UniProtKB/TrEMBL annotation:
The protein's name in its UniProt record: UDP-glucose 6-dehydrogenase
UniProt EC number: 1.1.1.22
Broad class of enzyme this protein falls into: oxidoreductase
Record domain UDP-glucose/GDP-mannose dehydrogenase C-terminal: where: 320-421
Protein family membership: Belongs to the UDP-glucose/GDP-mannose dehydrogenase family.
Superkingdom of the source species: Bacteria
Entry's Gene Ontology BP terms: polysaccharide biosynthetic process; UDP-glucuronate biosynthetic process
UniProt KW NAD keyword: yes
Organism, as annotated: Streptomyces nymphaeiformis
C-alpha cells in the first residue's frame, strides 16, 4: 500500500521505516529539511537501538523515501499517518495541537483521491471528530477523506520491536472502509496473532491517555511507598517484589526511584487532566495531579538527600551525575529527571559533572551551564558524591573498586535502585537510595534472633493473651 508518515520524530521515523519493512511503499514527511536529508541518507537523527538497521534496509529496498513537501505527500498516500508532536502548551497543562492542525490544514486542500487520515499522536479525546470537521471544510468538494485514530504505544529504547511486534493494535474508526484499510496496513501483525481491537475514535484516543495515566500512577504509587519506607526503615525493593508476585498487580513499572520523565508520561497526564476538566469530569482524574506531584517530589527528595550527605551545603562541592537521559537506551533528555536533578544541584552551587553514554550532547545543548566528562572515569575524578540517575547497563557493569580509586569520597546515591549495592558496599562505598534502609549493623542471623526474642516476649505478655 502507499502510505505517508507525517512527522519523523521518535514515533514517525520508526513507524515509517517499519511500515516499509513490512512491505508498504512509504513516504516520510517532515518540515525540517535537515532531518529529512539525514533520514534519506540513512542517518538516524536520534539514538534508538536497531533503528539504523531497519532504516537502511528500508531505504535500500526502495520502499522508503523522505520529503518536506506536503503536496507530494497528498498525491502519494492512500493512508496518511499523522505522527507529529503534541507537546504541553506553554503556560498551561493542556496539549498544544498546533502541529496536528497544521498537518491537516496543509494536507486537506491538496487531497484529490479518496484516502484515510490516521492519527497516531497522543491527543485529547474528541480530536478526531474536531479534525474531521476541519477536513470537511478544507478538502476539495467531492474528495472522499475519512479519519481514524490509531494510538501508538511504543517505548523509546524498544521502538522498533514495539512497532513490529506490538502488544496490541487499537484502531478508532467510524466506518467499515477505514477498518478494512487499516487491517490491510497491519495484515502481517494480524497474521502473527497480535490482539487487534477496533473501536470508535473517542475510545481509541482515550485508550492512550488511560494507558499512560495508569503507567504513571503505578510508578508514583511505588514512589509514594518508598517515602513511607523511608519513614519506617522498610525496604521498597522487597515490597515491590512481594506485591508484584500478585499477578493482579504485576512487578513491571514498580521500580522506585527518581520517577518518570520523557516526552510522553508527564505531559500526557497533564493534558488528560486538562481535557477532563473541559469535559466537566475534572474530579474523576484529580488524583493524576497527585501522581504528578509525587513524581516531581522524587527529584527534590534526591537533591535534598545529596545536600544532607554533603553536610547541608552544596556550594563548591564536586558532584558527578551518571545519566542525563530520561531512561536508558535513548538520547532523549526531554523532561529528564536525571537532568533536572543535575541542573538543580548546579543551581544550588555544586560543581556538577554529567556523564551519559548517548545523551551528553543533547543535555549540554539544553543546559549549557552543565559540564560533561569526556568519559566515565574522567567524569568521576575527584567527586565527593556520585549520583546514579539513569540506569544504563554500562553503569551496572561498573567496577566499584576501580571507581573508588578515582573519586574523592566513595559516596553514592542510587536514584534508580539498579546497582548491586552489596558489591558497592563491599568496595568501600556508602550507598544511599530512596526507599531503601541503610544496611543493619548486625548480621541477618542476629536480627532474626532479636525478632524471635521480641515475639516471645510479646506472646508471653498478659496484654497479648487478653
Ligand atoms: C511511555 C509508555 O510506556 C509508552 O507506551 C508510550 O507510548 C509513551 O510513553 P516511554 O516514554 O518511552 O514510553 O518510556 P517508559 O519506558 O514508559 O518510561 C517512562 C519513565 O518512567 C522513564 O523515565 C522511566 O525511567 C520511568 N520508570 C519506568 C520508572 O521510574 N519506574 C518504572 O518502574 C518504570
Amino acid at each position: 500500500m502507499r502510505l505517508t508518515v507525517i512527522g519523523t520524530g521518535y514515533l514517525g521515523a520508526v513507524h515509517a521505516a517499519c511500515m516499509a519493512e513490512i512491505g508498504h511503499d512509504v513516504l516520510g514527511v517532515d518540515v525540517d529539511p535537515e532531518k529529512v536529508a539525514d533520514l534519506a541518507e540513512g542517518r538516524p537523527p536520534f539514538y534508538e537501538p536497531g533503528f539504523e538497521d531497519v532504516l537502511t534496509r528500508a531505504l535500500d529496498s526502495g520502499r522508503l523515501r523522505f520529503t518536506t513537501d506536503l503536496r507530494e505527500a497528498a498525491a502519494h498516500g492512500e493512508v496518511h499517518f499523522i505522527c507529529v508532536g503534541t507537546p504541553q502548551r506553554a503556560g498551561s497543562r493542556a496539549a498544544d495541537l498546533r502541529y496536528v492542525d497544521a498537518v491537516v490544514d496543509g494536507l486537506a486542500p491538496n487531497l484529490s483521491a479518496p484516502c484515510l487520515l490516521v492519527g497516531k499522536s497522543t491527543v485529547p479525546v474528541g480530536t478526531t471528530a474536531r479534525l474531521a470537521a476541519r477536513v470537511a471544510r478544507l478538502a476539495p468538494p467531492g474528495a472522499r477523506v475519512e479519519l481514524a485514530w490509531n494510538p501508538e504505544f511504543l517505548r523509546e529504547g524498544f521502538a522498533v520491536d514495539d512497532t513490529l511486534r506490538p502488544d496490541r493494535i487499537v484502531t478508532g474508526v467510524t466506518g467499515k472502509a477505514a477498518d478494512e484499510t487499516l487491517r490491510r496496513v497491519y495484515a502481517p501483525m494480524l497474521a502473527a496473532g497480535v490482539p487487534y481491537l477496533v473501536t470508535d475514535p473517542n475510545t481509541a484516543e482515550l485508550v492512550k491517555s488511560a494507558a499512560n495515566a495508569f503507567l504513571a500512577t503505578k510508578i508514583s504509587f511505588i514512589n509514594a511507598m518508598a517515602e513511607v519506607c523511608d519513614a519506617t526503615g522498610a525496604d521498597v525493593a522487597t515490597l515491590a517484589d512481594a506485591i508484584g508476585h500478585d499477578t493482579r498487580i504485576g512487578r513491571q513499572f514498580l521500580n522506585a526511584g527518581l520517577g518518570f520523565g520523557g516526552g510522553c508520561l508527564p505531559k500526557d497526564i497533564r493534558a488528560f487532566t486538562a481535557r477532563a476538566q473541559e469535559l466537566g469530569v475534572g474530579p474523576a482524574v484529580a488524583f493524576l495531579g497527585q501522581v504528578d506531584e509525587i513524581n516531581q517530589r522524587q527529584r527534590s527528595r534526591t537533591v535534598a538527600l545529596a545536600g544532607r550527605l554533603l553536610g547541608g551545603d552544596l556550594t563548591g562541592r564536586r558532584v558527578t551525575v551518571l545519566g542525563a537521559t530520561f531512561k536508558p537506551n535513548s538520547d532523549d533528555v526531554r523532561d529528564s529527571p536525571a537532568l533536572a536533578v543535575a541542573v538543580e544541584l548546579h543551581r544550588q552551587g555544586a560543581r556538577v559533572r554529567v556523564h551519559d553514554p548517548e545523551g551528553a550532547a543533547k543535555a549540554v545543548l539544553a543546559h549549557p551551564e552543565l559540564r560533561c566528562g569526556a568519559d566515565l572515569l574522567t567524569a568521576c575524578q575527584g567527586a565527593e558524591l556520585v549520583l546514579h540517575l539513569t540506569e544504563w547497563s554500562e553503569y551496572r557493569e561498573l567496577d566499584p573498586v576501580k571507581l573508588a580509586r578515582v573519586v574523592r569520597t566513595p559516596l553514592l546515591i542510587d536514584g534508580r535502585n539498579a546497582l548491586p549495592h552489596d558489591a558497592w558496599r563491599a568496595a568501600g562505598w556508602t550507598v544511599k537510595a530512596l526507599g531503601r534502609p541503610a544496611p543493619p549493623p548486625e548480621g541477618p542471623g542476629q536480627a532474626g534472633d532479636r525478632a524471635v526474642e521480641a515475639l516471645r516476649t510479646l506472646i508471653a505478655s498478659p496484654a497479648a493473651s487478653a
